Amino acid sequence: MSVFPAEPVSPATFMQEVVPRLFEAAVQGQKIDDVDVRLGVHLEGEGGGEWVLHLRAGRLEVSEGSRAEAAFTIVQTVADWRGALWEGRGGVFGEAAASLFRQGGVGGEAEGASASLLPGGAPSPAAVAQLAALDGLIRVVVTGGEGGDWSAGFKLGPGEIPLDPTTKITVTDEDARAMQSGELDAMQAFMGGKVVVAGDMALMMQMQAIALQAAAEARARSGR
User: Is residue 2 part of a domain?
Assistant: First the structure.
């Protein structure tokens, strides 16, 4: 039986009650005792706040409070957070966020794609260290989707969250789906102006390189 709530719950309930249950259900039998990492969540708006997910000694501790020391932080409005998890908003990006919990769960496999908070069983310590060495806010904006524009931010490295994104990536819902299906090549989309990057492009490329390396390491650990 799924432990994901069928109806929306408050951010506090989700972070402090639902996420630990999802984690416990997903990591059974996986060896993650050697992992020690802090991930942050920053939700803006009514009912929002900050939480720290501290994974250490094979356990996940979720606490409300400053995420300033986290290596990586998800930054979003409460409306967009809720929209991805329960309302089908955000296009392929929202679906990827929802699949972390709805299909594969924490540490699992989403149908048709690898989509896990703990790919391959645990986050790569090397990847976490690399993320922590960066500093900036990457914001992804999906336009033209059902329910209006949707966005999610990723704060790389510890420290305060800047008011304006260091790097902003804008893409339409239609083009994002075309890239996911392979109908549209990502590089061609970028060169053709279908993916618009404003600000520090190097930061985006650094994050992408770390993600690709971590995915490769996860596949190697899982034997795929």
Answer: no
Q: Which domain holds residue 152?
A: 11-219
Is residue 167 a part of any domain in this protein? yes
Contact between 53 and 34 under an 8 Å Cβ cutoff? The reply is no
User: DSSP E strands: which ranges in the chain?
Assistant: 36-44, 49-56, 59-64, 72-77, 136-143, 150-156, 167-172, 195-199
pTM of the entire predicted model: 0.85
Q: Is 1 within the bounds of a domain?
A: no
**CA atoms of 200 and 67, how far apart (whole Å):** 23
Domains: count for the chain: 1
| 17-32 pLDDT tens trace | 998 888 877 766 565 6
**Nearest to residue 35, comparing CAs of 73, 66, 61, 69?**
61
Give me the residue label for tokens 């109908």.
183
The 10s digit of each residue's pLDDT in 123-167 is: 567 788 888 899 999 999 999 988 899 999 999 999 999 999 999
> Would residue 88 count as lying in a domain?
yes
Cα atoms in the Cβ-side hemisphere of radius 13 Å centred on 133: 9
Q: Which residue, chain included where needed, has tokens 């699949």?
A: 99
